[in-house]
Every structure is written in structure tokens, then in C-alpha cells.
Amino acid sequence: MSTNTRGSFSDLLSRIHPLLLAPMAGSGGLQLALAVAQEGGLAALPAASVSGEQLEKDVHSFRAATGGPLNLNYFAHRSPEHAEDAMAAWRERLAPYYRQFGLAETPAAAGGGRAPFDAASCALVEALRPEVVSFHFGLPDKALLDRVMATGALVISSATTVTEAQWLAQRGCHAIIAQGAEAGGHRASFLTDDMATQVGTMALVAQMVDAVDVPVIAAGGIGDARGIRAALALGASAVQLGTAFLRSPEVMTTSVHREALRNVRDDSTAITNVFTGRPARGIINRLMREVGPMTTLAPPFPLAASALAPLRAHTEPQGSGDFQPLWAGQAAALAREAPAAEIMRELIAGAFA
Length: 353
Ligand SMILES: Cc1cc2nc3c(=O)[nH]c(=O)nc-3n(C[C@H](O)[C@H](O)[C@H](O)COP(=O)(O)O)c2cc1C
What we know:
TIM Barrel; eight-stranded parallel β-sheet; single chain; alpha/beta; 2 domains; binds flavin mononucleotide; 38% helix; 13 helices; three-stranded antiparallel β-sheet
């Protein structure tokens, strides 16, 4: 299925610049979405880390300020069950840090603030009727997906391999994001967890374009207009950028993250599972160096985060980013410290003029 009642993804792209703001849980929000929409890109609001009430408020504010299209982004993972043993092993691995900082207790397992798409999220999508709904980590169950499709939303999801792209296309996705290994934040992978074989954007986009009939959106390591032009030359219909916006004032992130982004180089990032239990790309810090970057001790997503929360709370006020994720892609050094609208205008002028 490549069209719906509101037209195809290509119809949508004909009305905007083929430039998608990456939804960024914990960093992206209303102000960033508005800046991108006002410059003619596809705005996104990350729904996985905010309450339904907050999301509803943000969507209403977005609609009041702009007529541009909106992408609501959800995580489609399954919540882990019976992870007590894994959590105990994780707490034991982190115990030396607790001792170092004199922190007495480790907290119980919690969701880590990253809820999967469920019936309540689906009801909200039905009420808010975004033009686009995107998923990370695959797709929700068919019954929920059918309900999202019935709203007329264009459904997109990220794939890290051609096999994942074909899987998404078979289930009716209207477009597929080719997320290359360079990308910042969580790997979208849902049919593979082999981090040794992650495919780079350049190789992935070209092979995905050949393999599926729906539009492919390139993501990962695209830091400026040169990257956009390269992705389009490979056959991508659009590009999605996350890290390129991370230094803009509209992004809600910590001062330690901003400082790390200011000093980043091409080889400053790695894929790690120590922060949430799921592989993600971030700037290398102490926890990644000493416990990871990949470890079999991390409990399933998103449980790893809860045991880290006290360490982060203790160290962050001292200006340390040792125990928090500093998500960034491999092109982070290309990111400019500038308002998001200015970044958009520069990207558009350089790529499409
Ligand atoms: C800080 C940060 C948070 C992210 N959070 C999400 C998210 O909530 N949902 C999602 O689908 N992708 C998320 N991503 C991944 C992006 O969708 C996209 O794949 C990535 O930003 C592209 O690579 P780039 O960062 O090199 O531009 C995140 C990326 C970053 C950098």
C-alpha cells in the first residue's frame, strides 16, 4: 500500500522540502518542530518520552502556529518481562560507581520513560490525526497499525537493513527511513541485533531503493547540504536529519551534552547499549569506555536507564557527562550552533537551490 485517503508520501513531499526533522526523544520538542515546519520541512514530535497530555498540548500549539504537516513518532518495542535477574546483574556491575560516589541504594526496575505504542497512544493518534505517524524499532501489532492507517496517516518506520525495509514495505509502510550506521541515537534495528554488520548510509540507501517500491528517506551522518545532495543522488526521495539540529537553542538538552557536541570530532562516537539496553550511537564517555561500548550485562531496553539515574543525577550537576547518554551521529562535528530556522535555510539553499 503506497497511497491512502490523504495521498501518497510523494504527494506530501511535493508540498514541502524533502527534509524531515528526526524525532528526538528527550531532545526534540515543540520549538524545534515549529522552526522546521515554518521553513517548509516535515516537523516531528517524539511521543515516546512525553505524556499523552503533553503531546496533545504540543500538537494543539503546533496546529495553532502553522499549517505544516506533522509527524508523531512512537517506539514499537515490546516491554520486557521477567528481567529481575538481568537487573540484578546490571546493578552489580554498576555497584563500584555507587560506592565511588557514596550512593547507597539502587532503584528498582522502571520503564526508563520510554513507553511502547499502545491502545492509549493509538486513541490519541485517532484524535489528533497527524499527517504522518512514524515508528522506531519496527511496527506495533497489526490491530493497532490498522487503526493508525485508518486515520489516513502516512505510516513510516526506520530500517537498518534491506530485509527490515522489505518487512516494513510488506506491512504497508508508505515510506521507509534507511537508517545508516552513522546515525545518532538508537539503532532502529528490529530483525537483527548484530552491531558488527550495521550498514552505512551510502551503501544502505542505494540497496534499499533497489529493493522496495515505496519512497526511501536517507538518515544517518547527513550533516550539511553536501550530504543531502549525495543521498538524493543515491535515489533517496528525502532525508531525515537529527544531529545537525542538536546544537540549536530550540533543542532541549543538557549543558554537558552541548559542551560535548562543541568538542566532537569525526571519531568521537560509538554504538553502545549501556544507557538503555538497546544499541545507540553517542559521544564516547566514561561509562561507555569502562562498561561497554557493548556489554551483555545491560538488561533489555529500556531497563538499563533506571539503574543509571542516580549516577547521572549525582554527576551531572558537577558538569560531568560520564553517566548520561550524549547521543550524536558521526557527522556531529558538522553541526552548527545556530537557530534551527537558520540551519534549515542553509540546508535548503545549499541542497535545493
Ligand atoms: C538525540 C537523538 C535522539 C533520537 N531519538 C529518536 C526517537 O525518539 N525516535 C526516532 O525514531 N529516532 C530517534 N533518533 C534517530 C533519528 O531518527 C535518526 O535516525 C538520526 O538522527 C539520523 O542520523 P543523524 O543523527 O546523523 O542525523 C534520535 C537521534 C538523536 C541524535
